[in-house]
Design a protein that fits this description.
The complex is a heterodimer of chains A (292) and B (578). In chain A, 20% of the residues lie in helices and 18% in strands. Chain A contains seven helices and nine strands; from the N terminus they run ααααββαβββββββαα. By secondary structure, chain B is of the alpha/beta class. Classes of the chains: A alpha+beta (292), B alpha/beta (578). Chains A and B meet through strand 1, strand 2, helix 5, strand 8 and helix 7 of A and helix 8, helix 9, helix 14 and helix 16 of B.
Chain lengths: 292, 578
């Protein structure tokens, strides 16, 4: 198989200049299946992918868009023209590499990420580049893709979270709920290039207030997602509730008290003061205490 | 009519069946639940049917609970357990003088246990499913079900076949026992994510339930709040939980079950017997188990307890039932002018609260239902299907992801105490998907092996295990169960891959974990036919193993045969010794 290469730095510009026939010839050389059904953009994407030779269908390629262009310092310098690659459908397989990254939502402010990197996988990826594992940093690249058709480069925000191969999971603290994230697990090379090893499926964090309500999450949590130890029994971040505004509008028949009551009940549940019936809460009388 | 009340009782226990051990401690969860909850509640519902009470409640029975109720081995063991309890109660009757307050209580328990034994053998003919069928036919209860092994579905969404299989196998199990598909689906732990709805709708569900804040934060705001269901695509309706009525019962400090007159749950005779008596009546190994014989009432928060007085407790339960109805009446009056239809108050309970935790719960419910119809205006006690037959749902809205776990989301089932299980569960699911891709129409032993691998995977996915790990109660057993099921999945998928299935081991697994006998592994396929994307997790990324990029065949083999050990240290389950 061809050595993995950073798509944007090495192949991206030249591929863009090629016509579809030339791209098809290149795709044939790389044994990319279903190439004749692809558009030019899809062909570029497939050819740009480090693992393009093992791709098997056009639908898969939509799950592996190119990484954004970055300088050696890691900041985005140019936003490439969005390619309308769809976010993977739920039914589309998310497993195509043997390095795997999975994101799971815990609540509005936390995501749990875990990954599997088979032994020697990192070495096998870096050897053709003449790099050793200790020269690169393992990074979880988190994209905020809320409301987007994510094309690999159009995320609202992108954050690199350093991770360790020996500790294959982390908790990520977020600023606010109701967002959609995707993640890439990969290596950051000394020259700033990012080699993607796996991409997660999209994960949606729950809303913690009404959609469109002013003040959601303001004043709470870090500016960017960060890897943090999950609190043991501590209350969740207190910020968002302190600044919550009333819902934007009510229905004519609802009294102010109607929604105040429901809002208050919701707040009690979410802030963890213990809806008394909550499994896992204080349950002197709780039903799930069956197992005591 | 002021409004309607929708009472929902969700019955669930994890599948615990150990034919390899004649007296398995954790099987007593099911035995206690039968004695204290399921059989007493059946008696209450049968009373409504007999007396023509015009009320209908919803009862959700989990597929694992149904499977245990229908299992001959567990029933035989239960009857033997009941015999031992009867012998113990007889001993207690002889122990106390006639004027001792415990004498009457011991007699009460003895009568109760004997009546249960008679009812199972005579009235039910040894079939615990039949009375539920009869009650449904009589119209007093509407039955529904939940996910196959009560998996917490929002955390399985990253592997679509898991969610679909949990929903479909749950519904199929129900349909095989009750002869029809259920209209309602209880989302385990009220764990909701909008992404679940496609599978629910495709499986033929008509409605499900979510926690209060899931509805309160819906987009757009539902005009009736939680007091009417909202419509969802695919003909689904979603009902929101009313916080006020739930709180009156559930609240640990102020809820009804904490009243001093009620029976004290924690003072069980089982913890007070000497070793010899324990061995003779309870467990041959001398393990202390709960007997359900409890002599004290709650009395106060202190350890000093007074004897339990059943009549006084029953009178209190009736007062509390009236109080509950008074509150609902006022609540409905307040809400009536603010909703575009008579309000519906949805109050779900874990079925096991009644009788087991709250001994007087069945009396409370019985009085509540019998009195509700006599009120003016009457409070209707109806099911979601009844409601949807009368009113259309509120305008469509997209509820927010939520659960009824502490803090309202997924934290109970995913936190530092149980996060090690999730890589294992996902890995097991992927390994099985791969084998299913390779064998789309297996027969004979191969088919049995694939079916059993799926059965083991489903059992590993039960929400009970991460819950126990989180609370620390029976954590060792929970870890053992997950480890055992996942090892079985990897063992079977390896044998399938090597085309060397150990039939003896397969038969042993089939005998032990015998639920879902109809299971067809093909339900676990990727829906869109693109299953060929699955790959073995042990193969290196971006490089062919043959070229040295992947693990050595020996290492890969070792990894597959030691799925738990192969997980990095941080993510390993606690060892047995810990």
């Amino acid at each position: 198989m061809n050595p993995p290469r950073n798509p944007s730095d090495q192949e991206g510009p030249s591929l863009e200049r090629m016509d579809r026939t030339a791209l098809l010839a290149l795709a044939k050389e790389k044994k990319i299946r279903n190439r004749h059904r692809m558009t030019k953009a899809q062909l570029i994407e497939a050819l740009s992918d480090p693992s393009s030779a093992v791709q098997t269908s056009a639908s898969n390629r939509s799950t592996r868009p190119a990484a954004p262009r970055r300088t050696a310092g890691g900041s985005i310098t140019e936003k490439p023209r969005p390619r309308r690659a769809k976010v993977p459908k739920r039914e589309a397989p998310i497993i195509q590499d043997t390095v795997r990254l999975t994101l799971l939502p815990i609540g509005p402010y936390w995501i749990h990420a875990f990954w599997e990197i088979p032994p020697d996988a990192l070495l096998g990826m870096l050897q053709p580049l003449g790099r050793a594992p200790d020269e690169v940093r393992l990074v979880l690249r988190l994209y905020d893709v809320t409301g987007l058709v994510f094309d690999g480069a159009n995320a609202h925000r992108m954050t690199d979270i350093p991770v360790l191969q020996s500790e294959p999971s982390t908790y990520i603290r977020l600023r606010s709920g109701g967002r959609t994230f995707m993640g890439d697990l990969g290596c950051l090379l000394p020259d700033g290039r990012f080699l993607r090893m796996a991409r997660s499926g999209p994960v949606h964090t729950p809303r913690d207030t009404h959609p469109g309500t002013a003040g959601t999450g303001v004043g709470s949590g870090p500016d960017s997602p960060v890897s943090e130890e999950y609190p043991k029994g501590a209350p969740p971040p207190p910020g968002p509730f302190a600044v919550r505004r009333p819902p934007p509008s009510d229905f004519p028949m609802n009294s102010p008290q109607f929604w105040r009551n429901l809002e208050e009940a919701s707040r009690i549940i979410i802030e963890g003061h213990g809806h008394p019936s909550s499994p896992g809460g204080r349950r002197e009388l709780g039903s799930r205490g069956w197992f005591d | 009519m002021a409004g309607d009340l929708c009472l929902i009782f969700h019955g669930h226990l994890p599948f615990v069946r150990h034919p390899e051990h004649p007296h398995f401690l954790e099987e007593h969860w099911f035995f206690e639940a039968l004695t204290e909850t399921y059989l007493p509640m059946l008696e209450i519902w049968e009373g409504w049917s007999r007396d023509g009470i015009p009320a209908r409640v919803s009862v959700s029975l989990s597929p694992t609970l149904i499977s245990q109720m229908a299992d001959p081995l567990l029933l035989e063991r239960y009857l033997s357990y009941l015999d031992r309890l009867i012998a113990l109660a007889e001993r207690e009757c002889e122990l106390y003088a006639s004027r001792h307050p415990f004498q009457a209580l011991a007699r009460m328990y003895l009568d109760r246990f004997q009546a249960l034994r008679t009812r199972i053998r005579s009235a039910y003919g040894g079939d615990l499913i039949e009375p539920f069928r009869r009650l449904e036919k009589s119209g007093r209860i509407e039955l529904m079900t939940t996910a196959a092994t009560h998996a917490f579905l929002p955390l399985h969404l990253q592997h679509a076949p898991t969610v679909r299989t949990q929903i479909r196998v749950g519904i199929e199990t129900f349909a095989r026992f009750f002869g029809h598909a259920p209209a309602g689906f209880w989302l385990p732990e009220c764990g909701y994510d909008p992404a679940l709805e496609t599978d629910l709708a495709e499986a033929g569900c008509r409605f499900f339930f979510i926690e209060t804040h899931g509805m309160v934060y819906a987009d757009p705001k539902p005009p009736n709040g939680v007091y009417a269901p909202v419509g969802r695509p695919g003909g689904l309706s979603v009902f929101g939980r009313d916080p006020e009525s739930s709180n009156q019962v559930w609240n640990a400090e102020t809820g009804y079950p904490g009243h001093p007159d009620y029976r004290e749950y924690y003072r069980d005779l089982g913890s007070e017997l000497d070793d010899e008596t324990t061995r003779r009546y309870l467990h041959p190994d001398g393990l202390r188990i709960r007997t359900g014989i409890k002599y004290y009432r709650i009395t106060s928060a202190s350890d000093s307890k007074e004897p339990y007085v059943p009549d006084r407790a029953a009178a209190r339960a009736r007062i509390h039932a009236e109080d509950f109805l008074d509150h609902r009446e006022r609540q409905m009056e307040d809400l009536g002018s603010q909703t575009d239809r008579p309000p519906l108050i949805v109050t779900p309970f874990d079925l096991e609260l009644f009788g087991h935790w709250w001994y007087e719960g069945p009396i409370w419910l019985d009085h509540l239902v019998r009195r509700a119809a006599a009120r003016s205006p009457a409070i209707g006690i109806i099911t979601p299907s009844d409601y949807l037959g009368r009113y259309p749902p509120s305008p469509p809205a997209r509820p927010a992801a939520s659960s009824w776990g502490v803090r309202g989301y997924n934290e109970v089932w995913l936190n530092p105490k149980n996060d090690w299980i999730w890589p294992l569960l996902y890995r097991g699911a992927r390994a099985l998907s791969l084998r299913i891709r390779d064998h789309p129409s297996a027969r004979g032993v191969l088919r049995r092996a694939l079916n059993q691998a799926l059965r083991e995977l489903l059992l590993a996915q039960s929400s009970d295990w991460p819950f126990m790990l989180k609370t620390g109660r029976h954590a060792e057993y929970a870890a053992e169960r997950i480890r055992g099921h996942i090892e079985a999945v990897f063992g079977l998928t390896d044998e399938i891959g090597a085309e060397a299935i150990n039939e003896e081991r397969l038969s042993a697994l089939e005998q032990r974990n015998n639920l879902f006998p109809f299971l067809d592994y093909r339900v676990f396929r990727w829906k869109d036919g693109s299953r060929d994307e699955e790959e073995l997790p042990e193969t290196a990324a971006g490089a062919s193993p043959k070229k040295g990029g992947g693990p050595s065949p020996r290492r890969a083999h070792k990894a597959r045969h030691n799925p738990v050990r192969n997980v990095p240290r941080k993510n390993r389950p606690p060892s047995r010794s810990s």
